[in-house]
Amino acid sequence: MTSTGPVSCTPTSETRRNTQPKARLPGQHDPEPGPLVPDAASLALRRVHRAASDLRRGTPVLLRCGRENPGSALLVAAAETVGARGLAELAALGAAPALLLLAPSRAAAVLHRPIPTATAAGTEEAPVALTLPPALLDPARLRSLADPVAEQLLPEAPELAAPPPLAFAALVLAKLGRLLPALVAVPVPEARVAEAAPLGIFTLPAADILAYPATAATTLTRVAEARVPLEDAPEARIVAFRAADGGIEHLAILVGDPEGLSAAGGAPLTRVHSECFTGDLLGSLRCDCGPQLRGAIARMAQDGAGVLLYLAQEGRGIGLVNKLRAYTLQDQGLDTLDANRALGYGADERGFLVAATMLRQLGIPRIRLLTNNPDKVAGLAACGIEVVGREPHRFAANGINDHYLETKATRFGHLLR
Ligand SMILES: Nc1nc2c(ncn2[C@@H]2O[C@H](COP(=O)(O)OP(=O)(O)OP(=O)(O)O)[C@@H](O)[C@H]2O)c(=O)[nH]1
Ligand SMILES: [Zn+2]
């Protein structure tokens, strides 16, 4: 069995050095309306959202260093979305030849050889930088370098270069934008940093990006709640949680009264379910998500109470578009783990802090977890949730998802019973 990496409370793309000021506590509301001075954590979230949106539109953004590396500035654009204008802006401000920043797994495929991996921010693989010859500074060719699905034979091969400071934060930003983790980058000399704003280029500290997942998780608040009788569980309620980043809401589906059970010292049946548009909504046969979702709710109804956290972490945190790309690679012979790696993503990009924060806010600190995934048990425990037991949650293979289920057992360490 190959390990998919150490389990931690927080997503893999998160720094262990949270340099951000303290966020509002979960459940704590905005102070009385007064002078419009948002707290520092909300401002940091806003900056990251703005930067990720710019990358998604093909606009470059400028990353600045904090105290460790004063003077460093890196202008980056997503290889997947950058157009001629973005490339011209990079050329206008950049001090050196443009680089392509990639995860080592994608760089190895581009260079047709293994890349020795170093680590950044504790346990993460450090990005690899390749020097881009002028012939490759072209939107279509950059897309082909970023995306194994769109790969073409290229006129000139890039060469390995030293990764610039801030390369790691840049790749994390691309992942937060659910883009392929591949960026065109140029270091910008301090004397030229002031030229970015008049071009409409947004600037943010790299520390904001690294702190983002934890800040977003700890600013979750309950925003709506309603009774929604379900086919398999007539006594059900949905509670919606929103983070200060304004991103997609996470949902808790409460069957019966798990809060009351917890208040009496019990440990309700709990399922931490990552959203799967294809499996949950369309009944895709590629995975086991649909049966797991419906099966968990039915089991909670039988048990009398339970809570299902429906988390906006599509595709194990890589997003729907990248999951579809991963499916194309799986049709070409890769398994679900290697397909993620080929795209430059980790095998599993999810963190457990969101789930733990929701459970705490619901007043459910002790649970019996419905899962086959030992990382979920360890991850929730690392976030302070007491997992008093694990209940297996397996469904028979359907003739199409057999290899997927087998990979989860052999390569992700999923338990068979
Ligand atoms: N990247 C990727 N994601 C997938 C694939 N198949 C399913 N998923 C996603 O995997 C997630 C489902 O995982 P879960 O059911 O939460 O959890 P698990 O890790 O399988 O563990 P269990 O609790 O045992 O089910 C959903 O977000 C799906 O969209 C795939 O081939 N590639
Ligand atoms: Zn699925």
UniProtKB/TrEMBL annotation:
GTP binds at R271, V272, H273, S274, E275, Q292, E314, G315, R316, T336, T371, K376. The active site is at D348 (proton acceptor), R350 (nucleophile). The keyword Nucleotide-binding applies. It comes from the Bacteria. It catalyses: GTP + 4 H2O = 2,5-diamino-6-hydroxy-4-(5-phosphoribosylamino)-pyrimidine + formate + 2 phosphate + 3 H(+). Its EC number is 3.5.4.25. CDD domains: GTP_cyclohydro2 (cd00641). The keyword Zinc applies. GO terms for molecular function: GTP cyclohydrolase II activity. Keywords: GTP-binding, Hydrolase, Metal-binding, Nucleotide-binding, Riboflavin biosynthesis, Zinc. Residues 222-391 form the GTP cyclohydrolase II domain. HAMAP family: RibA. Catalyzes the conversion of GTP to 2,5-diamino-6-ribosylamino-4(3H)-pyrimidinone 5'-phosphate (DARP), formate and pyrophosphate. This is GTP cyclohydrolase-2. The gene is ribA.
